[in-house]
Amino acid sequence: MVVQGAQVVSRVARILRIVSKHSPRGMSTADIATQAELTRPTAHRILISLATEGFVDHDKMLGRWVLGPELYLMGSVAAARYDITDLAASSVRALARETGESAFLTARRGDETVCLVREEGSFPLRSFVLYEGMRFPLGVASAGLAIISYLPDDDVAAFFSRHDLKEDWGPQHSRALVMSRIDRTRQTGWALNSGLVLAGSWGMGAAIFDAAGNPNWALSITGVESRYGNDRQPELGRLLLNHAHEVTQKLRSRYDSSRR
């Protein structure tokens, strides 16, 4: 029974993550079942149960499932511990203003990253690869690369034992190539995504650390390739590192204050 119960929890969590990834547009039952690797009847039963509890909602006009109000209420309570947008918002705005690029705050969630905040820059050509709620595996996109680069080596090895990024993201995300990017990030301090998710869309990121020194968030910027030449990268990297350090210091100050 313990195994069965754990399997149910795993399936519920998987479905909620899939619906979250495709919000606010939502998904059909069939698409959710396919991505969750469940039969359609099983996925439908779980979705109905989640809807009864308010964790998902069904848009009958579109035939799509979206996140429900109960998750919003829970998230509001959890935000007191995990949300850092109040501390990072000014840095996201400053990065967009100072660079002209779209700027983002991203959080680590297990083996993935989730975009929390987006701020548009002034440059008219933009990249729309990243938006609020978008999830990527660690090691994919600049924010996830910045975060995984500062995990302990054992944690990085464990991640690659669970995931083969090249299966979903192509040969440019083989373990060897991602490890070479991790090495480069550790040398420079900032991560570079040179059009690896979408051709012509480049990004750079820098990790934000919690009070225990864990890289649980990242600031990043994205834009068109022509804006990320070798001559400009050091300047952008410096800005990212400065703002990431500023947010890290704010987090440590808040933690110290909470212990007094």
Automatic annotation (TrEMBL):
IclR-ED domain boundaries: 70-253
Membrane-traversing stretches: none
Keyword Translocase: no
This protein's UniProt keywords: DNA-binding, Transcription, Transcription regulation
SUPFAM superfamilies: GAF domain-like, Winged helix' DNA-binding domain
HTH iclR-type domain ranges (all copies): 6-69
SMART domains (alphabetical): HTH_ICLR
Protein name: IclR family transcriptional regulator
Organism (species): Leifsonia kafniensis
